[in-house]
Specification:
With about 160 residues, this protein is mainly alpha-helical. Helices cover about 55% and strands about 10% of the residues. A two-stranded antiparallel ribbon has the order 1-2.
Amino acid sequence: MRRRRAEKRIAQPDPKYKNKLLGKFINMVMERGKKSLAEKIVYGALETIREKEKGKDPIEVFNQSIENARPLLEVKSRRIGGATYQVPLEVKLDRGQFMAMRWIRDFSRAQKGKPMDQRLADELLNAYRREGPTIKKREDTHKMAEANKAFAHFRW
C-alpha cells in the first residue's frame, strides 16, 4: 500500500526583498546549512546586476532570467514491453522554476576563477539576455522532447 503524498511546504520569502522565489534560490545556493553565506552570495550577485544593468530592478532581472531559463517540456524514461522510451511531458510551473534555478546554480559553480557572487551574476545576466549555457540546456531539453514527440501517446 502506498503512503500519502507529502504536503507542499510554503517557502519563506527572503528577508531583504520579501520575494518567495528568491528565498527558494537562496536555499538552493546554500551548502552545508550555511544560509548567511548563501544570502551574501545571492545579494552580492544582485548588487552586481544592479551595477551592470543600470536603471533595472535586480529582482525583475532575476525573475526574468528564471522565466527565460524555465523549460516548458522535458523527457522522462518510460519502460514499455522491454523497451525504454523517452516520453515528452509538459513541465509544471514549480518544477520548471526548480530546474531553471538548479541549472543557473550548477553552471555558475562550474565556472572557475571568479568569486561565486560574480559567477552567479554573470549566469543570471546571461539567462536574462537569453544566452549562455543555461539557455542552451533549456533548448537541448526542448529539442529532445521535440525529437521524441512520436512517443507522446505513452504519457501517463
